[in-house]
Design brief:
- Chain A: This is Cell division protein FtsX.
- The complex is a heterodimer.
- Chain A is of the alpha+beta class.
- In chain A, helix 2 packs antiparallel against helix 6, helix 2 packs antiparallel against helix 9 and helix 6 runs parallel beside helix 9.
- Chain A is elongated and about 100 Å long.
- Chain B is α/β, with parallel strands linked by helices.
- Chain B folds into 2 domains: 149 residues, 3-Layer(aba) Sandwich (Rossmann fold), CATH 3.40.50; 66 residues, no CATH class.
- Helix content of chain B is 33%, strand content 26%.
- In chain B, strands 6-7-8-3-9-10 form a 6-stranded mixed sheet, with helices on both faces.
- In chain B, helix 7 links the parallel strand 7 and strand 8.
- In chain B, helix 4 packs parallel to helix 6 and helix 6 runs parallel beside helix 7.
- Chain B is globular.
- The chains are: A alpha+beta, B alpha/beta.
- Chains A and B meet through helix 1 and helix 7 of A and helix 3 and helix 4 of B.
- The complex binds adenosine-5'-diphosphate and magnesium ion (MG).
- The site of magnesium ion (MG) has 3 residues of chain B, from helix 2.
């Protein structure tokens, strides 16, 4: 294809877009809306997955809260009972005082907040390392039957629940995106149809003079792709600043607790940008092709 | 000796063999048409409204496919031409219509250049060719005007310039003088005659009896889809 032809295609694409400003705006907005929702879902799902895998690493353990009223003998008896369970590698005792010290350390600068507590609310506990994750369920049910056990904290459940939520968000989200993308395609194909009608006469002449079918079609596909890409750009900006803002806000409020679990912006943005560009351009191209098939017999 | 003979022999540009066209059951627009058009001819296609003139033209342009028979253009059988090849067939055929079909937001020059741009001619060729054909149709001084600033005859001349700017072997005109007064119609005929003298074959569908009678060219007469007369140096016919 000649450079001049390429310029002609681009120019016709923009002219068509400008001629029906309102429809173009509607198309861009609907692509942007679909992609913003897509962006939200990606961010949620990726973050939940990230939290789940981080949690998995940190808490590949079972924690047993010891009943408050137990004596020291009873506590150490419980300890040996725990170690006797098949699949338990070690059982480390952590007194409530020690637990408080550990928490202060983890909270770092905000540690002073804990000093305002009148009473130590943390329980005495055993932290159990498993020989393997496969033993987890068996160990947990054995632990629940032991004398002196108040509660079994088992993070696998939390992780599983998190993953379930992520899966649910993904499924519902994909369905929602599917619908939004269809709507976007529909609007784009209508916009292209208007552009087509505005150029009917020109197309008719082009056919008689011997323009190839692709020469006639390309400007409309270019128009659709431009609409899609503009929508993608807007969505990218919204998601970029939206996430950046939220990320900062969460960091400022909850410092230590959350920041480690959220994926940093640049990691997210690299992938999102590619995905948005591809989807935006794809939706635009498909939208115009639908319109061309229906309304242009070349 | 034999070389000279070949030079004198006619070159067939278009051939129709047993061509029929039915639009739907019962509408026989063309029935068993057989004819040859040689390079350089000037041909009138005459007949009452509904006789099949436009259908004849549409078959040559591959706007319609024949229901039966065979059509050959420049030695290529176009009866079952693939859709991808159609544009290249049309580049060899210039067309002019009764209603001019100019783009209102383009100047005379741009309307003509447009036909070259869309087949991706180089700007150098465009700058050379457009002024030349505008000269041929006598519109050199109107190049920068818009269609609405022109008379009907001038508009038709622009559309003729556009039809010949890519040097087609044949120029087909479907009732080109249909919207024009007799005097202007003659101007158009002069232009067409001149184009024909330069070697372009011309096929003109028309109702205009006076023109056909005066021009004394080959006449193909259609009646209800059949060729009823094909005559060199003919006249329009007895009545109509
Ligand atoms: N697209 C079409 N569908 C059905 N019938 C058509 C169509 N075009 C033309 N016809 C019919 O075919 C016949 C020939 O028409 P046409 O070729 O336009 O004649 P002319 O140009 O000589 O007036 C007429 O009876 C007309 O009604
Ligand atoms: Mg007709």
């Amino acid at each position: 294809m000649k450079i001049r032809t390429l310029k002609y295609m681009m120019k016709q694409g923009f002219v068509g877009l400008w001629r029906n400003k309102n429809m173009s705006l509607a198309s861009i907005t609907s692509v942007a809306a679909s992609l913003v929702v897509l962006g939200l879902i990606i961010i949620l799902v990726l973050n939940i997955n990230n939290i789940a895998s981080l949690t998995q690493l940190q808490f590949d353990t079972v924690q047993v809260y010891v009943q408050e009223e137990l004596t020291e003998e009873e506590i150490s008896l419980l300890g040996s009972n725990i170690e006797a369970i098949k699949g338990v590698e070690t059982a480390l005792y952590e007194s409530k005082e020690q637990a408080m010290l550990n928490m202060k350390e983890r909270w770092g600068e905000q540690g002073y907040l804990l000093e305002t507590l009148e009473e130590n609310p943390l329980p005495n506990s055993y932290v159990i390392n498993l020989e393997g994750i496969d033993y987890a369920d068996g160990v947990v049910s054995n632990l629940k039957n032991l004398e002196g056990v108040d509660e079994v904290k088992y993070y696998k459940e939390i992780i599983e629940n998190l993953l379930k939520i992520a899966g649910f968000i993904r499924t519902v989200g994909l369905a929602l995106i599917g619908i939004l993308i269809l709507v976007a395609m529909f609007i784009i194909s209508n916009t292209v149809k208007l552009a087509l009608n505005a150029r009917r006469q020109e197309i008719n002449i082009m056919k008689y003079v011997g323009a190839t079918n692709w020469f006639i079609r390309w400007p409309f596909i270019v128009e659709g792709v431009i609409l899609g890409l503009l929508g993608a750009m807007i969505a990218l900006v919204v998601v970029r600043y939206g996430y950046g803002y939220t990320f900062d806000a969460i960091n400022n409020k909850f410092t230590v607790v959350f920041s480690a679990y959220l994926l940093p912006l640049d990691i997210l943005m690299g992938r999102t940008m590619m995905m948005f560009a591809v989807i935006g351009a794809g939706v635009g191209a498909l939208g115009s092709i639908v319109s061309l098939r229906k309304h242009l017999r070349v | 000796m034999s070389n000279i003979k070949i030079d004198l022999e006619m070159v067939t540009l278009i051939e129709m063999r047993n061509v029929s066209k039915d639009y739907s059951k019962g509408i026989h627009a063309l029935i068993n048409v057989n004819l040859r058009i040689e390079k350089g001819e000037f041909i009138f296609l005459v007949g009452a409204s509904g006789a099949g003139k436009s259908t004849f033209i549409k078959l040559l342009l591959k706007e319609e496919d024949p229901s039966e028979g065979k059509i050959i253009v420049s030695d290529e059988d176009i009866t079952h031409l693939s859709r991808r090849r159609i544009p290249y067939l049309r580049r060899n055929i210039g067309v002019v219509f009764q209603d001019f079909r100019l783009l209102p937001n383009k100047t005379v020059y741009e309307n003509v250049a447009f036909a070259m741009e869309i087949i991706e001619a180089s700007s150098k060729e465009i700058r050379r060719q457009v002024p030349m054909v505008l000269g041929m149709v006598g519109l050199s001084d109107k190049a920068s005007q818009y269609p609405h600033q022109l008379s009907g005859g001038e508009r038709q001349r622009v559309s003729i310039a556009r039809a010949i700017v890519n040097n087609p072997s044949i120029l087909i005109a479907d009732e080109p003088t249909g919207n024009l007064d007799p005097e202007t119609a003659w101007e158009i005929m002069k232009v067409l005659r001149q184009i024909n003298r330069r070697g372009t074959t011309i096929l003109m569908a028309t109702h205009a009896k006076d023109i056909v009678d005066v021009m004394q060219q080959r006449v193909i007469a259609l009646e209800k889809g059949r060729v009823v007369r094909d005559q060199q140096r003919g006249a329009y016919g007895y009545e109509d």
